[in-house]
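A reminder from the course coordinator: this example appears on the midterm review sheet, so study it carefully.

Given structure:
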């Protein structure tokens, strides 16, 4: 990155800020974005920190190319120790906030401590202001943005904020920016709320310096053109909601809390029908030729006036997973989640878990007087959302996430608590997508399809997706390395098919921007480093091999429907793939990283610090 890649360190307890320079080796080794936020998390988060305590830092960073013409690069990453998993929590968002933040001249922020009263931070190029936010506490994300812009008297100010869910430390609260964008997963909004930090407003007016401007513009324009071609058509026309019918056909659309793999109401909630009936327009992150964000509006009926963006994951979680076959309430639920600051995936999975509890007579009327969640009952679902965000009645239990909620309720409800490492599962059926099952089980941030795109392997047609076998380990690791590279550069994954040679061409873009020498081989190693760094963080925080697993339902309940009828996931089948994956990574049979492996990757400092923590534990246990 250009000399002086600057880091802003904020101490909320002292209302102070200082500027530091990111060590150049961090950028060389971890690129930026997710790689950089996790590297800074490693430095600033003391081992064993309480995720909702003042010691847990909240870290933001853009990629090196943010603010340039490079398509899909104006995004940012956020990280903290996750209150949902207790392991590494990282998430991505994009939009004008990312661009404005980069234009302040900073590329990363570490927020430490806890404010004595609700506060928002305004970064005005070089100057940092701490402002009271008591009047904003309790407001939704969108309203907060509007009020801050009005207060600062500048419509160009961009705001990243939490809603009531973050304030109330809902363990899957998200951080929203620019109205409809979220750093959604792993509960980073709860970390922000625990610090009483309502928002980070930015006004950036500086040009972003790059190493070779003219050549970077040429290469970017070429990529912009490719970004408007057939490789991105799916995202431009229907968006990811187009997955509903294809996953339904593949027996991979989780329905009624993963009790089924096909949804009888799929046509009624399909991307095609959504487009035909409710589509309004598309919008895009800065410098993006794809514009995958589809905006919808309900113009009549009970939910008239609803406006929302919807992607496949939100649609699956608030629709089929909860047995809901009507689009207007799904759109309304998505809009409410955005306003309240709730991650749609975890929210949908928590509600589906509760619906199954009631179905099986497990959960009594905890929330007397309220409609309890039931499959297909969209009024109950909508009524529960504010209750989760404010931790009222049953909402307080669901705000803990399904891992903790099921441990508290017991009565066998852990069987249908659909999570990995505490993070609620995304919208793909692991019993019919066995490589994905491996990716979900071993993923460092838990049940996530975005950090391991192992479903790409299953969909490729080159493997038997109904069978887990040796050979999937290296394939899953490859998709994970690729995701880590893209998330650190940052380039949006939706542009990945526009490259002839993704690693080589991305390395070129990175070099033209930063002036650092890079090539395909070095970029691959950077992706591996990021994955190993995240794993090292988890090991430091107490990860063991037992954490790499999936919910009991997947092992013992064969699918009752679809092309995968009768299929389940064998424990031995998963263990076989996990062993293969550890081997592909060069890890031990127990999934630990040998020091030698870290040193090979140029991570000797991490190896030494990990050893210190282990030695400390050993001494403590003597
Ligand atoms: S494809 Fe979508 S998410 Fe990706 S950069 Fe473009 S608008 Fe943003």
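Designed residues:
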């Amino acid at each position: 990155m250009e000399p002086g890649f600057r880091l802003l360190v904020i101490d909320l307890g002292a209302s102070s800020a200082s500027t530091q320079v990111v060590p150049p080796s961090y950028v060389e080794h971890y690129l930026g974005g997710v790689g950089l936020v996790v590297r800074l998390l490693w430095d600033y988060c003391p081992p064993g920190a309480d995720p909702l305590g003042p010691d847990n830092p909240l870290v933001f960073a853009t990629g090196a190319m943010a603010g340039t013409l490079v398509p899909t690069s104006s995004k940012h990453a956020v990280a903290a120790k996750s209150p949902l998993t207790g392991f590494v929590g990282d998430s991505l968002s994009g939009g004008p906030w990312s661009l404005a933040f980069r234009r302040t001249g900073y590329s990363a922020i570490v927020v430490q401590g806890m404010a004595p009263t609700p506060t928002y931070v305004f970064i005005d190029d070089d100057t940092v202001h701490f402002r009271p936010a008591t009047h904003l506490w309790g407001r939704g994300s969108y309203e907060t943005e509007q009020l801050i812009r009005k207060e600062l008297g500048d419509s160009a100010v961009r705001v990243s904020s939490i809603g009531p869910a973050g304030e109330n430390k809902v363990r899957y609260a998200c951080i929203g920016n620019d109205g409809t964008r979220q750093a959604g997963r792993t509960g980073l909004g709860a970390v922000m709320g625990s610090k009483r930090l309502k928002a980070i407003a930015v006004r950036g007016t500086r040009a972003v310096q790059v190493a070779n401007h003219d050549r970077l513009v040429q290469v970017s324009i070429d990529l912009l053109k490719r970004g408007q071609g057939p490789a991105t058509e799916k995202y431009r026309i229907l968006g990811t909601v187009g997955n509903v019918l294809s996953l339904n056909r593949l027996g991979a659309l989780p329905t009624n809390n993963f009790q089924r793999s096909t949804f009888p109401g799929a046509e009624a909630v399909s991307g095609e029908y959504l487009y035909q009936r409710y589509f309004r327009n598309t919008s895009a992150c800065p410098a993006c030729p794809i514009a995958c964000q589809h905006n919808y509006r309900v113009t009549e009926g009970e939910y008239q006036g609803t406006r929302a963006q919807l992607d496949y994951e939100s649609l699956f979680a608030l629709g089929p997973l909860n047995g809901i076959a009507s689009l207007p309430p799904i759109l309304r639920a998505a809009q409410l989640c955005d306003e309240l600051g709730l991650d749609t995936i975890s929210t949908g999975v928590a509600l589906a878990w509760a619906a199954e509890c009631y179905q099986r007579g497990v959960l009594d009327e905890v929330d007397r007087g309220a409609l309890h969640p039931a499959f297909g009952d969209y009024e109950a679902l909508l009524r529960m959302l504010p209750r989760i965000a404010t931790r009222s009645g049953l909402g307080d239990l669901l705000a803990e996430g399904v891992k903790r909620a099921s441990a508290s309720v017991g009565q066998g409800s852990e069987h249908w608590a659909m999570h990995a490492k505490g993070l609620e599962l995304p919208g793909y059926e692991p019993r019919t997508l066995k490589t994905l099952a491996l990716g979900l089980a071993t993923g460092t941030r838990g049940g996530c399809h975005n950090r391991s795109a192992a479903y790409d392997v299953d969909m490729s047609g080159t493997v038997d997706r109904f069978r887990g076998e040796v050979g999937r380990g290296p394939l899953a690791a490859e998709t994970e390395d690729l995701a880590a590279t893209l998330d650190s550069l940052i380039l949006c994954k939706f542009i990945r098919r526009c490259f002839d040679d993704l690693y080589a061409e991305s390395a070129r873009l990175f070099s033209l921007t930063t002036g650092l020498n890079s090539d395909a081989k070095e970029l691959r190693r950077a992706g591996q480093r990021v994955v190993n760094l995240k794993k090292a963080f988890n090991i430091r925080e107490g990860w063991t091999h037992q954490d790499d697993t999936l919910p009991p339902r997947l092992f013992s309940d064969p699918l009752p429907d679809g092309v995968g009828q009768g299929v389940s996931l064998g424990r031995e089948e998963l263990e076989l793939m996990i062993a293969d994956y550890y081997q592909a990574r060069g890890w031990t049979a127990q999934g630990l990283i040998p020091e030698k492996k870290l040193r090979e990757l140029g991570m000797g400092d991490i190896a030494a610090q990990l050893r210190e923590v282990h030695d400390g534990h050993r001494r403590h246990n003597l």
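The mean pLDDT is 95. The chain has three domains: 6-203, 227-409, 434-621.
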